[in-house]
Amino acid sequence: MYSTKVSIFGAGGTGGEIAELLVERGYEEVSLIDVQRDMAEGKALDIVQSGAMIGSDTRVLGGSDAALATGADVVVITAGIGRKPGLNREDLIATNALVMQQISRSISVLAPNATVIVLTNPADILARIVFEETGFPSNRVMAQGGILDSARLSHQISRLAGVSHKQIHSMVLGGHGDHMVPVRQLASVNGVPALNLLSEEDWADAVERTRFGGGEIMEKFKTHGAAVTPAYAVVAMIDALHSPVSQIWPISVRSGGAYGLPEDVFIGLPVRISRVGIEDVLELPIDAAEREALKRSAASMQATYETWKNTTARDSFNRASRVQSR
């Protein structure tokens, strides 16, 4: 269906699920890249053989060599350590930032024209690191989060209002995590404002269950988080990147100053996306409380990023000082 090469760094649960969905859609080639070579190779073999059942001729490769990403059109990053009970997404940054830097250096050489989608948490902050490390234009670096959170909100509206998922549209902006911003006036059921069908208490419940939806799933699994819905969210972005006409999705992108946010912050915003990448950010008339919540979300991510940056600079200085003193 698509003459496109997609490379996925991280062959765990979500990476494998993304690969499966891409095979179902008939993408030309999918590569799974993971430090655990045997797992990546085995998963690739398992997935490619499903092509005989569904009539897909997608090539599926697996291994530990970053060279598998050579010439990729789209690079998805799911690699790194995942959330565990008791850990916030921001707690993961020290380890996962190093993973992003290493992968970014590889793809900037091997796939200089690729569009990069970051799924590893904390996705918004790590997308900023990938943007800086690769030097790619901002319309080709993004993170997933808003689509997943919007799906969770839509599910909660369906549950509370007793209506079909098919008729529900919602949009969650802000950071992917506790600082997400569900937008009330953008939640609807076949054009009917969702709040016409929900009480204030129902809406508050839907928001609460959405905000902590990932943690709820992780508590059940014990060792890892959600994989299926995040994979569908990433594939929706990949499909949009092959659309000749614009699609509108909530995606974490460089704000560029939209909504009065710091220009360099990556945060979930409503965007037009198509085969040219991110076309622009849509400045929608959200209410004052939501605008302030969006600013708080951005401020939180800016602070976390600066803490990481300052810590990294201090550690680099200390290492250099020790070498010079020898």
Automatic annotation (TrEMBL):
InterPro entries: L-lactate/malate_DH (IPR001557), Lactate/malate_DH_C (IPR022383), Lactate/malate_DH_N (IPR001236), Lactate_DH/Glyco_Ohase_4_C (IPR015955), Malate_DH_type3 (IPR011275), NAD(P)-bd_dom_sf (IPR036291). The keyword NAD applies. Residues 148-308 form the Lactate/malate dehydrogenase C-terminal domain. Residues 4-142 form the Lactate/malate dehydrogenase N-terminal domain. Keywords: NAD, Oxidoreductase, Tricarboxylic acid cycle. The keyword NAD applies. PANTHER family: L-2-HYDROXYCARBOXYLATE DEHYDROGENASE (NAD(P)(+)) (PTHR43128), L-LACTATE DEHYDROGENASE (PTHR43128:SF16). Belongs to the LDH/MDH superfamily. LDH family. This is Malate dehydrogenase. It comes from Alicyclobacillus fastidiosus.
